[in-house]
Amino acid sequence: MFVSKNLNVNDKGHLTIGDVDTVSLAENYGTPLYVMDEDLIREHCRSFRKSIDKFYDGQGLVCYASKAFSCKEIYRVMQDEQMGIDVVSGGELYTALQTGFDSSKICFHGNNKTTEELQMALDYNVGRIVVDNIYELHQLDEMCGKQGKKANIMFRIKPGVDAHTHNFIRTGQIDSKFGFALETGEAFEAVKLALSCENLHLCGLHCHIGSQILDTQGFEAAAEVMMSFIEKIKLELGAEISDLNLGGGFGIQYTEKDDPLPYEKFMESVAKVINTFCKEHDIKRPFILIEPGRSIAGPAGITLYTIGGKKVIPDIRTYVSIDGGMCDNPRYILYQSEYDALVANKANQEKTETVTVAGKCCESGDLIGEGMLIQPCEVGDILAVCATGAYNYSMSSNYNRLQKPAVVFVKDGESRVVVKRETLEDLIRNDC
Ligand SMILES: *Cc1c(COP(=O)(O)O)cnc(C)c1O
């Protein structure tokens, strides 16, 4: 009935998340409101971690890709769940460090890290810096040399495997701003160079083949390609690559059209490929890293809005206006992403009304969705949009000077604010 298993209906006919009444949450904290189920976030972490235990003898680390949802509390939860994390900016790194996150379990990504960001990574001994390009390699080597440091690096590789939701394509040289190409020999030359850099330790290789991927073939193909490259490095350069990072991108259910795999399936199939390869080619099995973002945070979150207006345009469509929109969820205007929605205070009623949910920004494209089937609604009702835990709060903006909503975590039937709602004062804090 619901896209996420933490959603239910109580005896008042109200939608619940993690057994907490969403209508009460809207009353207590106001709308728009992001609500995340902490237990479900933790459960997702455990299922990925368990899959490494079960299929790979525990020889790996699950790094939560925190660009999906970043705030102090999520890093505390990740530390508590013995997860590693990915960060892609000084801002995410700073936020994690402010909670005392173990820096040895941080992977630092990005295709254009600034000098300041690299310096911060060195200052705090970030466990793995994922080097994207040759300029960064030179710069990092030089910085380490001057400061008497040795950094652990991985290379971001374009494996020539590009996955899109239901299939993957092999391309000669993929057109991407991220990483080193394999086909052209660029990646191999970079590895050679890195091995000669005194101040760097090349510990591993990384690839990330896409997002919202709903099957395993792309990951299997990527694992095969990356293992072959590891073998080539061993045979031709005599160097052993100890870590293999296969990225994230595991798909979730947004609407009933999506049919995601149980999370452990990814590790199961990838482990098979690596184990077989290592046996047949006499290669030492690498330590494995995976980087789920959406699949950890996405299904755990919903957004609650108050319906403030309704426009029935005969024979065309019905607009339902909410008190948020592209500022708190820009995914529709960016990618026409589809979502499941319902009227939280009428969750026990049948969905019979097809509407376009419109945000309150001054943009015609500011929609949450078109052709959304919801319960018959009226002004004052609470609209819940499901599976908004990832890439919503983290992509939110202050366009039209709207204040960013609060984020509330629910756990054990209780709720607590983990990010406060922005005030009008917050909006002008940096104005001179
Ligand atoms: C975005 C990203 C991820 C996470 O992707 P999801 O689709 O959210 O799982 C992991 N690794 C890298 C390098 C990324 O850029």
What does this structure look like?
The chain is of the alpha/beta class and about 425 residues long. The protein has two domains: about 160 residues, Beta Barrel (Lyase, Ornithine Decarboxylase, Chain A, domain 1), CATH 2.40.37; about 180 residues, Alpha-Beta Barrel (TIM Barrel), CATH 3.20.20.10. The protein is built from twelve helices and 23 strands. Strands 4, 16, 17, 18, 19, 20, 21, 22 and 23 form a nine-stranded mixed beta sheet that branches. An eight-stranded parallel barrel has the order 5-6-7-8-9-13-14-15, surrounded by six helices. A three-stranded antiparallel beta sheet has the order 1-2-3. The model has no long low-confidence stretch (mean pLDDT about 95). Pyridoxal-5'-phosphate binds next to α10.
In brief:
This protein is 31% helix and 27% strand.
Contiguous uncertain segments of 5+ residues: none
What is the CATH fold-level name of the largest domain? TIM Barrel
Helical region count?
A: 12
Q: What is the top-level CATH class of the largest domain?
A: Alpha Beta
Architecture of the largest domain, according to CATH? Alpha-Beta Barrel
CA-based shape: globular
CA-based gyration radius = 23 Å
